[in-house]
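Q: What would this chain look like folded?
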Amino acid sequence: MLLLSFYLTLGALAGILAGLFGIGGGLIIVPVLLYSFSFQDISPAVVTHLAIGTSLASIAVTASSSMVAHLRQSLLSWRQFIGLVMGVVLGSGLGGWLATFLGGEWLIRAFGAFAMVMAVQMLICKTKASAGHVAGQLPGLSRQITYGGVIGSISAIFGIGGGTLTVPALRWHNVSMQQAVAIAATCSFPLATVGAISYGWHGWGHQGLPEWSTGYVYWPALLGINATSIWFAKLGAKFAHQLPEDKLQLAFAVVLFVVGIDFLLFT
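A: My prediction, written as structure tokens:
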């Protein structure tokens, strides 16, 4: 019951973040699951990949709710960023495969540094916006596919929904924060779905996995998280379209910075 309550609370927090920032919640789910699985005496040989695979599976469900909520409140059509969707699907499959060859400790440290770099990037974008840059447009199809491939690969390796990279990339083109979040939330669904399938497939039969696992996906955590994340993602998406753009972007950068420090200090 204690673990169930823990996963329900984690799901609510992840859902809020998914809807608010379009990040899928993986920035919170992965580090928390790392600590949780360590306390459950799960083999250190699989704990990092298990946390990432479970995170992607939970994001796939949460992102579906967040995506619908954002598209209902946004004037965007998914056809305007179909290149990004195509790219993240291809990239996430590749990233899930590559991650099986990487050591767990390397993944933790690398993601900590990556999150902090993205936090700085968001602050730079905020400075550009405050300097009076005019609103921009989405990049062309070929650039969208390229961005999507890179975003999908890196996001699948680290178990995040893609918004961590998608939002800064779009903000660099001066796309509004609300539109960037809506696009990131939409792209998170196919990215996380393909990534989770890849982790489940490549982790199948691995020694050290706990019971109730399908490859690198741990079902008790997955079901507990998604029991609350779906509903809270809708609430987060509502807040995202009501908050001032500058405050939303600053909050995004702070979340990235704090989680980056957490990953770098994790042992």
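The chain has a mean pLDDT of 79.
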